[in-house]
Design a protein that fits this description.
There is one protein chain. The protein has 377 residues and is an alpha/beta fold. It contains twelve helices and 14 strands. Strand 12 and strand 13 form a beta hairpin. Helix 1 crosses helix 11 and helix 4 runs parallel beside helix 5. The radius of gyration is 20 Å and the shape is globular. The model has no long low-confidence stretch (mean pLDDT 97). Bound molecules: 1,4-dihydronicotinamide adenine dinucleotide. The site of 1,4-dihydronicotinamide adenine dinucleotide has 21 residues, from strand 1.
Amino acid sequence: MTKLKWGMIGGGEGSQIGPAHRLGAQADGQFEFAAGALDHRPDVGRDYAQRLGIAADRAYGSWQDMLEGERGREDRVDLVTVATPNATHFEITKAFLEAGFNVLCEKPMTMSVEEGEEIVRVAEASGKVCAVNYCYSAYPMIRQARAMVRAGEIGKVRLVVTSFSHGHHGDATDADNPRVRWRYDPQMAGVSGQFADCGIHALHMASFICDDEVARLSADFASTIPSRVLEDDAMVNFRMTGGTVGRLWTSSVAIGRQHGFDIQVFGETGGLKWFSEHPNQLEYTPVGGRKQIIEKGEGGLHEDAMRLSRVSIAHPEGFPLAVANIYCDLADAIRGEARDSLPNAADGVRSMAAVHGAVSSAQQDGAWVDARPPMFR
Ligand code: NAI
């Protein structure tokens, strides 16, 4: 099978998410790193791309140059990853979809619900794949949890409880550090801080495992460090279309918590529990029975979990390989075998509607609001 050609925008040297995309895209030999506009500084981006092995004529100084350069080539890239800061996602993703490229966009897909709906429409009209990097949903044990829920192994889901709470912005003496400060500044971050950054991963995960949509929510936002305009802590209650009750806590001032992403799903006949810091284990407790640990790579897993378990049982697989699982599903989708596990533009706009809904709810003392984008109501 010939390799697909892949390009990235953003994700330059020293960036947080760039290495996970490079490792993930190339992990299974499906994609060849062929083009990039990796940095907001043209020379730095061109130099780094060439050091990573990209040919000089495809090491671009800007995403606009990459769009012009690639659209005219017969061997143009099959997939473009957008790994730039949030405010640029909409413009870049839209431009590449309109030019007929498949796109993987980092979260949050857009800043507003209107932009998100626009991306859904443009993606549909283009017939191209538009995925959003909710990569935690690609851990094998999350695929196992989803498959167990779908197979009725814990019965109808009553309750989902999730948190994505870390303490890395909890030091008030560091609050003015520019790398921290922008996240709580509406001019830079948009309408929401911590909920838009981490909370949406947890909300997407709840929908993904429960195979249901968040319909309504009520939010309490707090800026626990007074100089911050946007929230650094949020509690969000929600209801899914099928009646499932949801509780979500997200915080960046939870000192002592490191990555801090976990989820528990409670059904009528059993419960599931997963922690991102121990991603290879899924706890399962049947009603009236003992707790069992289901391990990545063991026999008898559901097909999707088995397919995405690479190294043998008890050997750790981590975050870059979860990102690699997104690229596996993308390669299948680009080759014509769509997988419903791949987070798409509809998931991206649902997150934005939830963010804007939560902001509006928090401003109204936790009033319950519709969490869905208008196009899906
Ligand atoms: P970062 O600030 O560490 O790196 C951003 C990179 O983009 C830099 O190399 C910068 O030079 C480059 N860049 C900025 N503007 C550009 C432009 N116009 N053209 C080309 N390159 C440009 O940011 P980080 O933390 O890597 O985040 C990037 C995106 O990834 C954000 O949207 C963030 O929300 C998302 N992210 C997602 C994660 C996930 O779990 N899915 C985890 C971490 C970040």
